[in-house]
Amino acid sequence: MRSTVRDVMTTQVVAVREDAPFKEMVARMRDSRVSAFPVIDDAGKVIGVVSEADMLNKEADQARPGTFASMLRFRDHEKAAGVTAADMMTSPAATVGADEPVVEAARLMRDRRVKRLPVTNATGHLIGIVSRVDVLSVFTRPDAEIQHEAIEEMVRGGFLVRSQPFTATVHDGVVTLTGRPETDRAGHELIERLRQIEGVVTVRDELSYAGAKSS
Fold first, then answer.
1. Total domain count, the chain
2. pLDDT in tens, 94-130
3. Which residues lie closer than 8 Å to 195 by C-beta, 6 or more apart?
4. Does 71 share its domain with 164?
5. Is 123 found in the same domain as 156?
6. Residue whose C-alpha is closest to residue 159's, from 137, 136, 178
7. Domain CATH for 124
8. CB within 10 Å: which end of the chain, N or C, has fewer?
């Protein structure tokens, strides 16, 4: 079974209200050693995210007035002039549900180019946060567990019914598959099945395909 966001997320979240002042956010960012805050309204619902990049606009905008500052995007100018979380946040925030698979969180982080995602419940209330390192934690799964699931997958797919023609070994999350499939298509299908197993870094295809010419 694939891990969900709930399995890897952090429930102790440092969040700020929309009226949090700039200096308070800087201090909390330093003290909490975080690089972004979910911004919540009075009901605890996520309405945005303010990051160190958003806050850096203020310093950058003041550094070289009339030169570098004039090249900033309009929204960056607005953020540089901001004094509260509501002024500086990115909204709406990219969020993820706790029951979504970890791969969905990874896709969102990649597509939105963010380092973390607030985790919300069905009503949009903040219940946790998931970071890139949390997502990557699925690759710490023990090799023995991966190998066990790989064998189960081959059994389910009917690949081991004929004298167990395949062998899957796992080292550091890398699955090496050997054997001779009945058809090239069957071999490619098995490779794809094993790639989908949680914790697999890659699958090394060392199958002897029926269409391959012997040297």
1. 2
2. 999 999 999 999 999 999 999 999 999 999 999 999 9
3. 202, 203
4. no
5. no
6. 178
7. 3.10.580.10
8. C
Q: Of 183, 184, 185, 187, which is closest to residue 168 (Cα–Cα)?
A: 187
**Are 59 and 84 within one domain?**
yes
Query: What sign for the dihedral angle of Cα 197, 202, 207, 211?
Result: positive
Name the residue among 86, 82, 95, 78 with its Cα closest to residue 39: 86
Q: Are strands 126-131 and 116-120 parallel, antiparallel or unpaired?
A: antiparallel
In-domain check, residue 156: yes
- Higher-confidence residue: 143 or 71? 143
Which residues make beta-bridge pairs with 202? 174
CA distance between the termini of the chain: 41
Residue 214 lies in a domain: no
> How far from the centroid of its chain's Cα atoms is residue 3's Cα?
12
CATH number at residue 203: 3.30.1340
Place of tokens 């699925």: 138
Residue 35: count of CB within 10 angstroms of its CB: 13
Query: Tokens in use for 95?
Result: 């969020």
Q: Are 3 and 199 in contact (CB under 8 A)?
A: no
Contact in structure between 112 and 90 (CB atoms under 8 Å): no
Is residue 19 within 8 A of residue 37, CB to CB? The reply is no
Q: Residue 97 falls within a domain, yes or no?
A: yes
